[in-house]
Amino acid sequence: MYCPHCGRTHPEGQRCPCRPRPKRRPTEGDATRAEREPWRAEYSSSAYRKARQRAIGRQLGRCADCGRVCAEYRDGRWYTAGMGGEVDHGRALCEGGGSEVENLTLRCKSCHKKRDDARRAANR
User: Fold this and answer.
1) Which residue from 27, 104, 112, 124 has the least number of CB within 10 angstroms?
2) Which residues are CB-contacts of 13 (< 8 A; sequence separation ≥ 6)?
3) How deeply is 101 buried, as exposed, middle or buried, from its count of CB atoms within 10 A (0-12, 13-18, 19+)?
4) 61: three-class secondary structure by DSSP
5) Angle at alpha carbon of residue 37, lines to 112 and 88, rounded to 5°
6) What is the pLDDT of residue 113?
């Protein structure tokens, strides 16, 4: 089948790779998420964003575990988008941890996943 957007052909009945998938419909659980997980509001606070920048700068954009570069500094700010970096809370917010600089660590996606999996396994 011919795609009118990019001009490529793709199999009949399948979506062309150039077109994003449609958004999923919100569920009932989405509406109550803020009540179930009030700690998530912390992520949008200016104090968290400042502490996050300081934590990434402290590590110079490198993963704390493997040393991989996972953040870049440009225009006076650290960016992790497209670099694979994630800021990890040493003690999770849902477990009563805070967003102070001492509790934040920059990790690459794979190291962050390993650490989260281990933490969740320990809590079972």
Assistant:
1) 124
2) 1
3) middle
4) coil
5) 20
6) 95
